[in-house]
Design a protein that fits this description.
The protein has 184 residues and is α+β, with helices and mostly antiparallel strands. It is built from five helices and seven strands; from the N terminus they run βαααααββββββ. α1 crosses α2 and α3 packs across α4.
Length: 184
């Protein structure tokens, strides 16, 4: 019998064990900023459409295409939120896509992943969600978008910071958590 583990719970525990204990063991919820989930959902939806529906015949999507993807997601946002998040989305494209000169087609967007691992004779079923999977020669990058109203910005925006086996890359208020999955 495999024990079920969530990637989100594992990351939560690794980053802040006490917060994990209060949330998952005691069931205490962290107070959320009004509409934070709606804001994150809008950004995720725009990025999913950007990657899923782009024709990939041109090297980079136009600003009109980006605006179209964004406008399909903004129904529940205020005018201020629309403008703030639009700037975040534009910064993401400028810092994460444009420097590559070609937008790479992902293997998949917005999905679930699972696998079995064995530790000390115990089998664990690890489950999680991803926002994007990118194919590399040496494996696959699992990418999870994180958005925040007041992020802690690196002193050198756009620089990579390594933490364990993941990489965080900040684009304004949108952070990419990249976890390399090696081929065996």
């Amino acid at each position: 019998m495999a024990y079920l583990l969530s990637a989100t719970k594992l990351m939560s525990y690794a980053q802040r064990p006490r917060a994990y204990y209060y949330r998952y063991e005691y069931g205490l919820k962290q107070p959320s900023v009004f509409g934070a989930a709606v804001l994150g959902t809008a950004l995720h939806g725009a990025l999913a459409q950007l990657y899923q529906d782009w024709h990939y015949q041109d090297p980079l999507p136009s600003e009109e295409w980006l605006r179209y993807c964004w406008e399909n997601q903004i129904g529940a946002l205020t005018a201020t939120q629309v403008e703030e998040r639009w700037q975040i989305l534009r910064r993401y494209v400028e810092t994460e896509i444009v420097p590559l000169r070609v937008m790479q087609r992902p293997l998949a967007t917005e999905g679930r992943i699972q696998g079995l691992i064995q530790v000390n004779g115990l089998e664990f079923k690890l489950t999680g969600r991803y926002d994007r999977l990118n194919s590399l020669e040496e494996g696959v990058d699992l990418i999870d978008y994180k958005s925040a109203k007041n992020p802690t910005m690196p002193t050198n925006p756009g620089s990579l910071t390594h933490s364990a086996d993941t990489t965080s890359h900040s684009a304004g208020c949108l952070t990419l958590e990249v976890m390399p999955l090696k081929r065996f």
